[in-house]
Amino acid sequence: MIDLWGVAIVSLVLTMIVGIYGVTARKDLVKKLISLTILGDSANAFVVALGYRINGKPPILPSGESVATFAKTAVDPLPQALVITAVVIGMAINVLLAFAIIQLRRVEA
Amino acid sequence: MNPIPLAVLTPIAFAFTLPLIGKLSKSVAKAYAVLGTFLTMLFTFEVFKSSEGGPLTYTFGGWRAPIGIVYEVDTMSAFLGLVTSTLLFLIAIYSLEYIKSGEVWYFTLYLGLEAGLIGVLYTGDLFNLFVMLEVTSVAAYALVMFNRDPQSLRAGLKYAFIGAIGTTLYFIAMGLLYRTYGTLNMAQLAEIVHSSDVVNASLAILLLATWAFLIKAAIFPNHFWLPDAHPAAPSPISAVLSGLVVNVGIYSIARLYFTLYSGLPEVKSLGTLLIILGAISAFLGAIMMNVHSDIKRIIAYSTIMHMGYLSMALGIGSSLALASAVFHTFNHAIAKSLLFLSAGIMIQIGGSRDLRDLAGIGRTNPLAMFSFAVAALSLAGIPPLNVFSSKVMLFTAFLDWNPALAGVLVVTSIMSLVAYVKMMRVLWLGCGKKESVGMPVMTGVVVAISIAVIVLGLVGPWIFKGIALPAVAQGWESYVAGGLGG
User: Out of B138, B149, B178, whose CB is closest to A107?
Assistant: First the structure.
C-alpha cells in the first residue's frame, strides 16, 4: 500500500521547489508573482501538515473531557495559528507587488 | 515601569495615527512623525539602561513565558536597538527637508520600518521574529519604490521577490523547528537544545534560516538585489537600509547561532560556510567599488563588503570575534548612514548620481564634503575615526583564527580606500561649476553625525570594553534564566 501521507509531503516539497524555480527563472513579472503565491501557499500547507495528526480530533475542547487525554488525540492548533498569520502577511506582500507591477506597466507604457 | 512595550508600541501607534493627522495638516504630521522617532529613542535608551543587570523581559497580554509572546532584551539587543532608534531620529530630521512630496506616507512607512527593526531586535519569540522581519521588509520594499519611477520600481520588485522567498524559507524553518522541539520561545528552545540530543532536524532548520538571513544581510550569492535597491531609494532611506536594515540579518544569525544553538557541531560546520561566503562578499564588494561611477552604487557595494566582514566574524564565533562583530555593526551603521546622507546632499544639488556630473561639487559645499570625507575615511579604516577601532578588533579576531582572513580584511580595506580617494578627488578637485543651495537642516544633521564619528573614534576602546564584551559574555545561560526564570 502506498503511504499517502508521505506522497502528500513529498509533493508539497516539490511544489515549493517549482515555486522557487518560477520566481527565479521566469522573466515575466506577473508569472514571478504567481510563482511566489505558489511557493507561499505550499509552504503554508506544509506547515499545517506538520501539525496534523492522522485521525486526530479538531482542536476544540469538548465539554467534560480532560485536557490531558484531549491533547493526546487532537490536532495541534498552533501551526494553524502560525499559518493564518503568514497568510495575512503574504496578502500584504502580494498586494504591494501587484501594485508595483501595475505601476511599472503604467509608467513604462 | 517596564520600558519595552513603550519602545515597541510607540512607533506602531505613531505610524497608524499619522495618516489621520496628515489629513488635517502636513506640517503638523511631519512634526508628529519626528516626535514619534524621538520618543522611541528615549524609550530604547530606558531599555538600554534597565537591561544592564541582566536580560529584561516583557510578556504581552500577561501570558507566562513559554506560552505567550515574550520580548527579551539582553545587552546586545538593547545596544543595537539604541543605535537604531538614535540614527532613525536623526535621519527623520534630515528627511524633513529632503522629502518634498508624499511626506505623510513616507513617514508612515518610515515609522513602520522602525517598529519592525525594534521588534526584530527585542523579540524573544522565533515566530514573532518572522512577523517583525516581514513588517521591516514590507516597509523597506515600499520605501525603495517611493519615487515610483521605472528604475526604483524594478529595483524594489527585485528586492521584494528575493526578500519574500527568504522570509518564506524562514517560515518553513519555523514550522520544522516547532515540529521538532515543540516550542517557539527562544529561551525555552535554547534550554531544550542544550540539554537533549534532539538534533536530527537541526541542520535543515539552521540551513533554511541561515539562507533566509543571508538574503536579508546581502551576503554572496544573495547580494545581487542590494546594489539596485539601495541606490534607487531616496537618500535618507538608502542610509537606513544600508546602515540598519541589513544588520537585521546579521543580528538574527548571531542570535540563532550563539544563543539558541551555541556550541553545536552543526553551527561549527555552517560557520565555515559563513566565513567562505563572507570572504567572497568582501572581495566582491571591494572590486565592484572600483568599477562603478554611480556614487550611491559604490557606497552600496561597500555595504556588501562590510557585511562580508561581519559574516566572517560570526563564522569564527569566538567571543572576541562576536564582540567585534557587535562593535563593528554599531560603527558601520553610523559611518555608512553618514556617507549616504552627505552624498544625498550633493546628489540633491547636482541632480545626478553619476560621479562625472558631480565633479567639483565639494568645493561649493564644504560642510557636506567634510562629512563625506570623514565617513569615507572612517569606513576605509583611517585612525582615529570610529570604524578604525572596530576594524582593529576584527583584525585581531581574524588573526587568531587564520592569518589569511586578516589578509582579506587588510587588502579589501586598501581597495576600498582607493575607491574612496578617487571619489573624493573628483568631488573636491574635479572641474565643474555648481551653485551652492542652502540646506541648513540636512547639513546640520550630517555635521552632527560626523562629529559623533570623530568622538566615537576616540572613545571606541571604552565602548568595546564597556558594552560589546559584556554583551557577548552574557551567553545563553543567562538568556534562558532571564526568559524562563520570571
Answer: B149
